[in-house]
Amino acid sequence: MQFDFINTPAVKYCLLFFLSFTIISHAQHPILRHRKSIDLQQWKFKKGIIYNAQNSTFNDSNWESVSIPHTYSMDAINDVGYYRGVAWYRTTQKISESMKGKRIYLRFEGVGQEAEIYVNNKRVEKHMGGYAAFCVEITEHTKIGLENNIVVKVTNEPNFKRIPVNDKLFNHYGGIYRPVQLFATENTNIKPDYFGSSGAFITLKEQHKEKATIEIKTHISSIATSNTYKLLFKIKDSQGKVIATKEKQPVLDQKNNIIVSQIDINAPQYWQARSNPYLYTAEISISNGNSTDLIEQSFGLKSFTVDPNNGFVLNNEPYRLYGICMHQEWKQVGPSLTAQHHQKDMNMVEEIGATAVRLSHYQHSDLTYQLADEKGLLVWAEIPFVHDYSGREGENAKQQLKELILQNYNHPSIYVWGLWNEVRAYDSPEEACVILTKELNDLAHQLDPTRLTTSASDRGMESNMGNISDLQAWNKYYGWYYGEYPDMGKWLDDYHQKYPERPVGISEYGIGGNIFQQDITKLEKPSGNYFPEPEQTKYHEITWNILKDRPFIWSSFIWNMFDFSVAGWNRGGTPNLNHKGLVTFDRSTKKDAFYFYKANWSKDPMIHIVDKRIDQREKIIQKIKVYSNISDLILWANGQKIICNNCTSENNRIAEFEGVLLKRGKNEIRVTNLDETVNDTFILTVKN
């Protein structure tokens, strides 16, 4: 469907669409569940410029053995600088006789940052861009029943024709850091190599209380000789019951075909974000004689608008979007994350009570979008057009936007496509980055007329790059890089008053916090070596109170959910680390600010004693501060019982127990709810 401005000055769009989802398989992408596939996990690896390494006869016996996912850039985390250059991966795979007569493909979910793929000495693909999947047919280059040599030449060296053009904001890791599959399809298939997508795109065309009509656009590729085909659709509810079917006999008069079909769903249910992320499943198959190619996806139905006064409106009801930004890397493994890593990260996002996630600053893993769909998290997805520009990256930026949209078109969690972050056109509106942004905006609407575009600015209310995308948001760091913490409120009110017709979003806010630094008097901001955690906590208490009281904000995102690496940084007492996360880089510690937001955002009963890492104190009379979404609390200290009725402020979820008398030495502090089913405890030592 087309979307139009509603009769107000608001930016209001209606989004009614399909989501690609499946029951999560840890080993396979959803499009592979019904196709014979092999995970290519074991490879030989070596860094450096190596001549003839693509040849099948090349001797790699002295190379390192590695498992995918893998990165060769852990020095970005551990050392002062990191290797930016070429590396090689080699493997062999026997293709069984069961794949004889089939079409053979390779699918890479992500290779940083460029890849050349060789199969049995033939270069079959070159892909530029480190975050999107790509799929290539290798049928004519394979040998059935024999060992096949597969070689990948990788580089993460700088390239001004590729976004991002530099690594000032995050590391450009090298390697095959996401899964790789070799798989087979029938000679007539639902096209798996259409920009790495599933080959099926489903949109809600009409919505009524009694019935919804979805359109399924299926890309079919055929090299079969038959003229008789059957395209079958089965729509299943969340319990797997078939509730609608449709069959077509398409005419496939060329190799690549697009078949458009419409199906009615009776008594449709909405995808209601966290309260009820209801998912249907579409089973799509194309048959030719006795052969059938089949994929499964799920979909959710929803509508939204964005209004300058009411913010985000989901299914005709106001729905506050607040959450976090996140990168995909851990201290232990860099970006080469397993399914368990991704699930743990998204479980923490769910735990904190976020309603939205900004997946910065690039396309994230397939599994992350699937988990967002399942958990009901609204997603801002974006391409890595970040910070600086060369004027030569235009074609690659468009390619990466195409891949982002087409590979993720079917996720209902996604509501906006992000076009750029902190790209600055200082001189004029005719600069290359401005022209490119307009082209990207047009391309996004051409590919997906159901969603909005957005961008993240660190400039003023007006700029050469600003207000080209449908929505505009700002990265604001009041009190850290400039101004004072309360200035955020004044800026928001000034903007809303000056531009009442424009929605306003906060794409980033936050400050650094090091859990090993607790003395707030030693703060050295923004680039010194002391970022005490209590200062970060104070900042978030002030800033969230500003944001929550302004419902006109269409979304707000904390920078960042997790500490992350920036090679060459030396701030806050730990080299190569950005400390603005709510959770430490190794995921071992949730900072106090994490629990502040959990108290404010989550409905799960919780209690957290603040400043537990300040466990050595001077005075025997202490104030104990608690974050909790429970109103009646009890504090226990050395047998002393303090009951606090209605002590947790509804405004900020903070309770304070004043005048708690302790003893010299160790004191156990415990805070519980009235029936003691929820509690938090720590040992506080009062110095002698």
Describe this structure in words.
The protein is mainly beta. 14% of the residues lie in helices and 36% in strands. The protein is built from 8 helices and 41 strands. An 8-stranded parallel beta barrel has the order 24-25-26-27-28-29-30-31, surrounded by 4 helices. It has a 6-stranded antiparallel beta sheet with strand order 3-2-4-9-6-7, with no helix packed on it. A 5-stranded mixed beta sheet has the order 35-41-40-37-38, with no helix packed on it. Helix 4 runs parallel beside helix 5. It is globular. The chain starts with 36 loop residues before the first strand and ends with a strand. The N terminus is likely disordered.
What would you say about this model in short?
Helix content is 14%, strand content 36%. It is mostly beta strands and 688 residues long.
Our estimate of the beta-strand percent is: 35-45%
Calculate Rg over CA atoms. 27 Å
Number of continuous helical runs = 8
Percent helix:
10-25%
The residue-averaged pLDDT reads 93
Which structural category do the helix and sheet elements fall into? mainly beta
Strand order, main sheet: write it out. 24-25-26-27-28-29-30-31
- Report, as a whole number of angstroms, the end-to-end distance: 72 Å
The count of DSSP E runs of length 2 or more, i.e. the number of strands, is 41
Biggest sheet overview: 8 strands, parallel, barrel
Apparent shape: globular
Residue windows where pLDDT falls under 50 for at least 5 positions: 1-27
